[in-house]
Amino acid sequence: MTGGEAQIGILGGSGFYSLAEELRPVEIDTPYGPPSAAPRIGRFAGRDVAFLARHGENHEYPAHRVPYRANLWALRAAGVETVLAPFSCGSLQPHIAPGDFVVCDQIVDRTHGRRQTFYDGPHTHHVTFADPYCPALRRTAVAAARDEGISVHDGGTVVVIEGPRFSTRAESAWFGALGGDVVNMTQVPEAPLAAELGMCFAGIALVTDYDAGVAGDAGAEPVTHEQVLAVFQENLTRVRSLIGRLISDVPAARPACCGDRAGPPLSPDTS
């Protein structure tokens, strides 16, 4: 399954595409159809990396239509063992401010209907997922952010919603009251699929806004997609610096705990 070209993969969302400008596209067939875009493979920050635009190079795939299984399969086929998944998010807590980064440690899944497993039968595999993000990779990411002088939160629960719409004020307040820290649309099924393939996975969130129900401010203006993109552009230099340092700091050997979560060899059911 693996081509061995790149050890580190980057799943980039809105605003991250410029990270891949100097990398070469490589066509990879998957049993689950084409990925969102051809992975771009080459040297970045002194390491061999594979970048994949999760929403497509022209942002043509909304979160609920992203071909997640094809994306993760393509990265693994390129040799990737460690996945960095930067993403935009809204804050659900007053102390997590726009412009902050959060290296998440937990997930609450509020999506529905997404294909979240490679094991659709006849073989099954129940992946260990109590800790959805690689602890070792999380520590490396937090240290890299602090070294870059970035305001970073060590740990946080991301509530993953179906999209493509944003939350209502009531939903947002509810997510925050239940212990959610940030809200996003793509970490599920990216994280569980990576776990099934035995890849280390880190979700690195850039907070672009306070979500609609934070602090009970009923008069606050709701976020728009254009505002999210604008915040990304404003922070692109910091994002690039963080990802570059993190790529440099990722250990050459994948932690055994992540590889041990992988299921048996896959015989994909693509029906």
Describe, in plain words, how this protein is organized in 3D.
With 271 residues, the protein is an alpha/beta fold. 26% of the residues lie in helices and 22% in strands. Strands 1, 2, 3, 4, 5, 6, 7, 8, 9, 10 and 11 form an 11-stranded mixed β-sheet that branches. β9, α3 and β10 (182-184) form a beta-alpha-beta unit. α2 (135-147) packs across α6 (236-249).
List the helices and strands and how they pair.
Layout: E1 8-12, E2 24-25, E3 40-44, E4 47-53, H1 68-77, E5 82-91, E6 101-103, E7 106-110, H2 135-147, E8 152-154, E9 157-161, H3 169-177, E10 182-184, H4 187-196, E11 200-210, H5 225-234, H6 236-249, H7 256-259
Parallel strand pairs: 1-4, 1-5, 5-11, 6-8, 7-9, 9-10
Antiparallel strand pairs: 2-3, 3-4, 5-10, 6-11
Key words describing this protein structure:
alpha/beta; 11-stranded mixed beta sheet; 26% helix; globular
Taken as a percent bin, the fraction of beta residues is: 15-25%
Distance between the termini: 20 Å
User: Can you summarize the main beta sheet?
Assistant: 11 strands, mixed
The best one-word shape is globular
The number of helices is: 7
| Average predicted local confidence, pLDDT | 89
Uncertain runs: none
- SSE class: alpha/beta
Rounded to an integer in angstroms, the radius of gyration calculated over CA atoms is: 17 Å
Quaternary structure state of the chains depicted: single chain
Tally of DSSP β-strands: 11
Taken in chain order, the helices and strands follow as EEEEHEEEHEEHEHEHHH
The proportion of residues forming helix, as a percent range, comes to 25-40%
